Every structure is written in structure tokens, then in C-alpha cells.
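> @MW can you paste both from yesterday?
MW: sure, first one:
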Amino acid sequence: MVITGSGNFTGTRTIAVQVVEKGALQKIGVKWNKPRFVYDGTEHKLSSGKDFVVIDAKTKQPLTDTEYRTVYAADVTRAGTVRVTFIGMNAHTGSITETYQIQPNQKADDILVSAPNADGYAFVSTGVTAYQPVVSVSGTVLLEGTDYMLTYHNHKKVGTATCKISFLGKSSKGKAGIYQSVPYLIENETSVLLKTSAFRITYYVDKAMTKEMKGSSGKLTEGTVYLKIEPKGKKSNYTGVAYASYEVHADGKDLAKAKIVVTPKKTQYTGSSVGADTIQCAVYYDGEDITDLTDICYGNNIAKGKASILVTGRANGFIGAKTASFTIVPSDIKTTK
């Protein structure tokens, strides 16, 4: 028989083929000694002579390796059911399919999970998943999504979150493989722009906060306004009370009329907060650069997605605030070190 290459292959190859009558073909059989494998991160294929013997169905004599082929139809590393097919070759025909099990590793002493950062992780409003544990069994590093999956709980607020490690594959009793829950800290280490709807804000015209601003009659035309900020609702993600103040000027220059230029508009995710060293922000009022007369705060600036910039007035009568944004895009794995 001559095989001629095409597409990605060229040339020819001649292979000798033995032709026999159909009636002369002998069916195969399998003597089966199902092994007991336990997941350890390595492949678990069958051993001829130990786990099985392929035989001639009529004579019951063992066949050589050239008289049959073994085909595995599934991953032979993960815990679960593996299907294997034995196919007759040369003077033998037919196929026989069997299954065997790879049991989940139930020895907790063999499983190592890297500890989270003792200093905690910076809070981001989309949820903190920066803790990516390294999981190994008997010295073999496992793959997330292949050997185990991670789920996070209480990770969208400052405090203690939990990363749950669940091993994939089922035991013979249908129970999931063992798992471990690892607590880790989330700290408010970076600026995050929060929604005002989550807070109750009370305005006062005196520093002692005894005279509350109510209605148009209580508004100031000149002076300092004092704010008391408290979380709303019993199930709020926030606790405590914050205080702030701002100046009111009759002839103030409202930053709402300013123009903010952000360069560049996009940057790649790095796992660290993105600030003025990467994203430059310039503020213009009536065509004049007033950047040095303002305070600029970057928020929501770690995870991929839309990050925020808050510009507030600081000097020369500039009042109010204005926001801008830039985008953090996923990092290209080809260039990630």
C-alpha cells in the first residue's frame, strides 16, 4: 500500500499489508483485572499483563502488542471514569470497551495549598480574586479548571473573604472530591469611587454640625459646608461615619465646565493600581491648564474594566468636581512575564 502526502505533507510511503480472508480473522477477548488508581496528578494508563491481557477469543492464547491496539477515550489524569477500547489488528478483528476508575485523592496530608498574602489584598468593588493559590498533590502542581476550581465568598467588601478549593471528579459514592476553604484579608488600600446611593449624607453650615442645611433657605452662598456621611441600611457593606467639607464661593469657578484630557484612554491589567505614572490627566478651564489647581483621585483602578478619575477644585476659586474615566483591558498572556 502506498500513502501519498498532501496538504502539510509531501512524498510517499510504502507499507506492506497482509491480506487475509474475512473468515480467517480471529476475534479478540480481554482478561480483565481492574486496577485501583488514586489521583496524584500523573497519568494512569493500564499495564499489559498486570491490569489486562488481550487474548484470541477462540484459542485463549495471549496476543502480542502488534496484534491489538489500545485507545483511551478520556483524560487519564483526572479523577473519574476512564474508558479504554482494545482493537484487534492484523489477523484479529473486533473491539472490546471497558472502563476503570481514578479515585479522588482523599489524603489531606498529600495536598498543599499556598497561603494568601499576610498583608491582605486591595479592595476593588467588582470583587477581590487576587488570591490565586498554588495547589499541589504529592509534589505535583495541579491546574485550575482541570483538576480543581476556585469559588470566592464575601469578596466584595472590606474584611475577611474565603477562597474555596473544590477538586473536580466524582468518587464512586457520587460525592465531590475533598476541598479546602482558605480565608484571606481584603483591605481598603486604594481609592474606590463609591455610589452615593449607598450612603446617607447630611449637610451642615457649622463645624459643630448642629445647624443642618434644609431646603433653599438653608443653602450657603459663601462659606464652608460640612458633611456627615453614614452607610444606609442594616445590611450595608460599610460601617462607621466619615466627615468632609467643601467651600462655597459666590464667584466660584465651577469645575463642571472644565475639560479633562486623559492620556492614554486604555492600559493593560497588571494586578497593581493604575495611577498618574501610567495615566496622565490634564484639566483645562476656558482653554487654560489648571491641573496644578486641582486634586486628582484615581479609583476602581486595579481590575479590568472602567476605572474612574475624580477631579476637585483646590485653589484660585475653583469649586465643585468633575469625573473622567479610562479603561483597563485584559493583559495579553503572550507578553505577561
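MW: second:
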Amino acid sequence: MQLQEAITMKEPIRYSKKEEIVVNKKSERITYIDTAKAIAIFLTIVSHSGLRYHPINQFICSFHMPLFFFVAGWTQKNKKITGFIEWKDFLLKKTCTLLVPYILYSLISSNGLDLSNFKYIFYGNIFSLNHIGAIGTIWFLPCMFITVVIYQITVNLINKFKNKSIRYGVLIGVLVIYGMISSYFNFYKVSEMGVPLSSNIALSGVIFMFVGKYIATLYNKLKEKFKQAKNKNSIFIISLIFLIIGMILYKLNKEAFMFEKYNFGIVMAEAWYGNYFIFLINAIICSIGIVLLSMVIDNKFLRYFGKNTLIILYFHIQVLGISNAYITNQLPNGTYKCFVNSIITFLAMGLIIPIINKLFPNLSGKFINEK
């Protein structure tokens, strides 16, 4: 189980070997979503490799975190949860897969087990983690927890309406409210320590999850047309078109580069979006582009990393540092060195993942008795 587990399908669709882009029959996972997660985590590594002000990094930062929420929504079932038992099971599962690894990683990476650190750990955002020297990237885990809880509450709400038009109308209205709240409580409007559990950012995450879910629904209605394509060239071209449009939109979001501290672009972790509407549209379009690209390049190698994004999220910072200090230290600083370090780090994680899964399953959101 990783940042968000892929949802199983009751009747896997069978494609020819050449065109199999949807479901792995054996595992019944949506395989291209695992590939999309692998791309997302690789982009995360690149964004932390030292490019910072480079246009490539600015573009990556405009969508790579929303992409995680988007693919989480892609695999969701909008099923209403009712009763104490169902809610208990739901919250327990999300606590074990998201909050337990977060607390463990925070304790391991913080500057000591001082009791005062616990309040910052439970505050749960990038600012509080940085304050105690913990790995800042794991801000995503409590944020995702809040996101999936709000998502489920919203699903329960809209499912109260039997009329489809009213249901969609209510959903759109609720998501607009979420967006207004999230955009208002940006880094300008909150305290130095931000909002607990990145709850303001989680509201944006809910929007991306719902968009991901309904784009997936649309795709499932149109997938016969994708299936009938003699090759994947058309899907690849469409994915490139989406990504090119995303590049144009990120450049149009000039407000993202106005403030001196954030002149390298969008930082979702700190609620810095620039123009919020452009941020949303750009992130959605790029996320669609990445998912389509994943359908084309889907393979077992990338799926392996996509199934273990949580481990990579934590350890890639340390591995990047080792690579930079001892492997590529003779290379001149620059874009080339950053990409080499990113590739080395990504591949090195392939050696670290089985060790963590075997010896410390709780760190990957898994448990010893879990099959």
C-alpha cells in the first residue's frame, strides 16, 4: 500500500499483449497508475536535485504534487461509508498506511527524541517538520490523510442526492468552496508555522482527487476507442499535447514568480500557487498528460517503483546527497549533474525498497501479516 493504493476491478479487461494498458490480470491493479506514480516520484526526485531556478524544475513543480492527488482520485470508488464500524475501519486503514509511517519517519529523521519535538510532528506540515530537522517531504502524508477523509465526507454528502444533476451541482458548489478556502489561506494569510496537517492544502487535494475520479470515469467510457488504436502512437501524441499546453499555462502563471522567496515557481507544500485558477487548470492538464503517457510506457520496471513511492519519498533526499558527494562529485554543477544524480537515486531505490519492505514493513505502510 503506498500513497494511495490502486483500486481493484472485478472483471479485468483483456487486451492483446501489444495493447494491454489498463489492468494487470494477476494483481488486478490498474497498472498504468502505478507507472504514473513512478513518474511522479521521479519528478519529485528531480525537483529536489538542485535545479531549483531552472525552467524544467519550475514546470515540474507546477504539477508534480497535484499529480499524486489526481492519480489517487483516479482509483477511488465513490462509495458511501455509513455507520461506526465502516468509519472505524476506514480511519484505521488510513491511519496505518499514512499516519503511522509519517510519525515513524518524523521521529527517525528529527534532531532528537525531545518531547518538544512531538508537538511539531503532530502539527504535521512542512514548516513544523523543518523546525525539528525532519525530512520535509513527508508533509504529504498527513495532508493526504486529511484529503481522503474530506473526500469521503464529500462523497457521503453528494450521495444523499438521488437526482444526478443535483448531485453534480452540489459537488461543483462544494469544490468551489474548497478552492476558495484553499486559495485564501495561502502562505500570505497564514502564520509562520502554516496550518496544522496542511489542511488548507488538503482542500486543493480534494479537488484534484475528484477531477481525477471523473476523468477516469470519462476515460472508461471512451477506452474502446483507445483499445481499437492499432498502436499507442495516438495516445502518446495526445499526452504530449496536454503537457505542451501545461508548459504554456505554467508560463502564464506569472504571479507564481512575483514574490522573491518563491521566484522559482509554485510550492504546493507551502500553499504558494500564484494565480490559483491557472494553478488548478495547469496541474489538471499536466496530470492527464502524465497518465496518458503512463498508458504508453507502462512496464513492470516502473510499476515496481510506483508501488513503493512512500519509501522513495522518504529516502531519496539522503540518497541524492550521497550520490552528489561521492559518485558525481567530479562532474561540474549544472543541469546534467542534477539529472544524473536523479537517475542514480531512482535506480538505487530499487535496492533499498526490498530491504525496507522486508525488515521494516511499517515504514512502507505495510504490516508483517499483510499478504
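> thanks! The first helix runs from residue 31 to 47.
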